[in-house]
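Re: the 157-residue chain
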Amino acid sequence: MQEKKINYLLVAAFLLLIAACSHNTVYSDYKSIPDAGWNKDSVARFAVNITETGVPCNVLVNIRHNNTYPYQNFWMFIATTSPDGKTTQDTIECYLADNRGKWLGSGLSSVYNMPVLFKPNTVFTKPGKYIFAIRHGMRDDLLPGITDIGIEIDKAK
């Protein structure tokens, strides 16, 4: 009987921990990139509905790639459009591998995830739909090895 009680408490604590951690996530989504590669003209679009304003948030771009990605670094162009139609353009470079070719992201098997802090402590001042449009900025017309690209917005701590 005592073991059952402890098991129930552990399960309840685990569920509470999961609920507490996910409460900070405002938005999270991924777009799959075709197996043949990411075409230079293809844009991954994310429409994010922001309802809570005035709260500092971290906006991250999550890059999933596999072992066929041929470079150490990764360039991307990100256009952010606010609900009032204003668009800002950013050019971001990040590193997916160190100087020895070891992948920096976390992963299992041959797929790695690299979170990139895009906009730290961003305060959304207007409620409504924000559009994040991401294109790769590499020289390849068809970029191999990127499997998914994602946007994640978390409440800043």
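The two ends are 40 Å apart (CA to CA).
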